[in-house]
Amino acid sequence: MKKKQILRLLALTVLASFFLAGCVATKNGVPTGEGWVYNLLVKPMGQLITYFAKDQGFGYGIGIILTTLVVRLLIFPLGLYQAWKASEQAVRREHLKAILDPIQERLKTAKDPQEQMMVQRELMAVQKENGVSMLGGAGCLPLLIQMPFFTAIFYAARYTTGISEATFLGINLGKPSLILTAIVGVLYFLQSYLSMQAVDPQQREQMKSMMYMSPILITFFSLTSPAGVTLYWVIGGLIQVLQQLIINFFVRPYHKRKIAEDFAKNPPKARPTNTSTYKKDVTPQAPVNQAILPGTSKKKRNAGKQRSR
């Protein structure tokens, strides 16, 4: 299970990279002002940071915080919807564990491709009948829609004019900050820990290494990024923790009650399994002998057929 989760994460990362490739044209890592993400998102976000910082007199630190909050609130429904669907699917799988586990075990021990294919079909049929989606409910679309916004606010927080020379609470926004890096690491670890509490204990043990992946990566990037970018990640981490708390304490309990009621009215049933259908028929077939009349030969009989043609 852990390998599959890691492969899915890598596949999603590659897909997102292709999706965003060329959206913000850069030269030596600096935006050139070209690309649809830059013109539609990065530039307006940079202007909003400047508006809060200079026109309203809040400073660039507060400007980054307020702009991040505005952007995050705009895409918050998408993130919450994706988490809502994922939570629903996780609860359904928990209720179907007694039915799905034996099928998945047979899938692991399948002796040949034919048997594996038939067990896979049975698994997909049981999941479909009980409302379990192979894509986790919402699929990747909500995340792909959010990715340009994450990219845009990153570039706006890093390259908006004036940020690199500004300070916030004594922190130089143009240089890396160990204080903000430590806060980011704690927030993302907390978010990962909370998300692990929403999965099955057995899966939680298998996915434990993934709980450390996100905090380690974000901490590493923060060590080499300007504090203005890290400040954006701090606010993003706070919002993710808030979202995960909503999922754990409100959304997940709701799904548990509702799905338990649905399955109480319509109990899920496992499909009857006929193991003989998984076995190939290897019985040797006897050759079919054609009857030959006494006094005749196969050669003569065939010769007559050839002459009649």
TrEMBL record:
Residues 1-21 form the signal peptide. Residues 297-309 have a biased composition (Basic residues). Keywords: Cell membrane, Chaperone, Lipoprotein, Membrane, Palmitate, Protein transport, Signal, Transmembrane, Transmembrane helix, Transport. It is a multi-pass membrane protein. The keyword Membrane applies. One of its GO terms (cellular component) is plasma membrane. The chain crosses the membrane at residues 58-84, 131-157, 177-195, 207-225. InterPro entries: YidC/ALB3/OXA1/COX18, YidC/Oxa/ALB_C, YidC/YidC1/YidC2_Firmicutes, YidC_ALB_C. One of its GO terms (molecular function) is membrane insertase activity. It is found in: Cell membrane. Residues 60-248 form the Membrane insertase YidC/Oxa/ALB C-terminal domain. GO terms for biological process: protein insertion into membrane; protein transport. Residues 265-309 are annotated as: Disordered. Required for the insertion and/or proper folding and/or complex formation of integral membrane proteins into the membrane. Involved in integration of membrane proteins that insert both dependently and independently of the Sec translocase complex, as well as at least some lipoproteins. Belongs to the OXA1/ALB3/YidC family. Type 2 subfamily. This is Membrane protein insertase YidC. The gene is yidC.
